[in-house]
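step=encode ok
step=design start
structure_in=
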């Protein structure tokens, strides 16, 4: 293998192993790959990227994003859904509208149940926004008898607002579990490029 090819392989291994570095404090294999890549680059008179520095930058950026999202969730302001959010027929909330982190994103969340099927709930939402300037997408799923519908509604305004209905009914149950979620805006980080 030629020196440039070896350097490329070592750099690819070092960059490819970067997700592993976040899983552990120090990964001996990653450290060795980074050292070999650096040595090979120096021997060839090339200046390779500082992978450690970039990994630290990424970790700082991720920590800052997580802190910003958590600050939105911890805000004392009440959670709100977009004004165009349709009513959910025969909906029984299990608690108040709240701010929560869902998959790392701050959301306004309302959970509860309905005796209607997921399909009936999705049909009701589609009918409620019919003729409005609202984009909508619907997914109907059946996995091992569990019926799930997802309905995404997005305004055509700037900035766009989004709300989604997630409804699920396992086989044999008489009630549908319902979640209504809407992303909450996260302020831009100061010092962003």
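sequence_out=
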């Amino acid at each position: 293998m030629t020196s440039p090819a070896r350097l490329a392989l070592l750099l690819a291994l070092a960059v490819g192993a970067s997700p592993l570095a976040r899983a552990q404090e120090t990964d001996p294999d990653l450290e060795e790959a980074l050292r070999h890549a650096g040595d090979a680059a120096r021997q060839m008179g090339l200046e390779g990227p500082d992978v450690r520095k970039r990994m630290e930058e990424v970790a700082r950026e991720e920590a800052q994003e997580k802190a910003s999202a958590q600050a939105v969730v911890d805000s004392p302001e009440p959670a709100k859904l977009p004004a165009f959010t349709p009513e959910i027929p025969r909906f029984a909330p299990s608690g108040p509208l709240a701010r929560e982190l869902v998959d790392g994103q701050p959301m306004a969340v309302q959970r509860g149940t309905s005796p209607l099927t997921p399909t009936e709930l999705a049909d009701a939402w589609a009918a409620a926004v019919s003729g409005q300037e609202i984009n909508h997408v619907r997914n109907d799923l059946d996995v091992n008898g569990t019926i799930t519908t997802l309905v995404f509604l997005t305004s055509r305004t700037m900035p766009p607002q989004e709300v989604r209905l997630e409804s699920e009914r396992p086989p044999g149950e008489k009630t549908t579990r319902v979640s209504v979620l809407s992303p909450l805006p996260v302020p831009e980080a100061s010092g962003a490029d």
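step=design ok
step=annotate ok -> Residues 76-183 form a domain with the TATA-Binding Protein fold (CATH 3.30.310).
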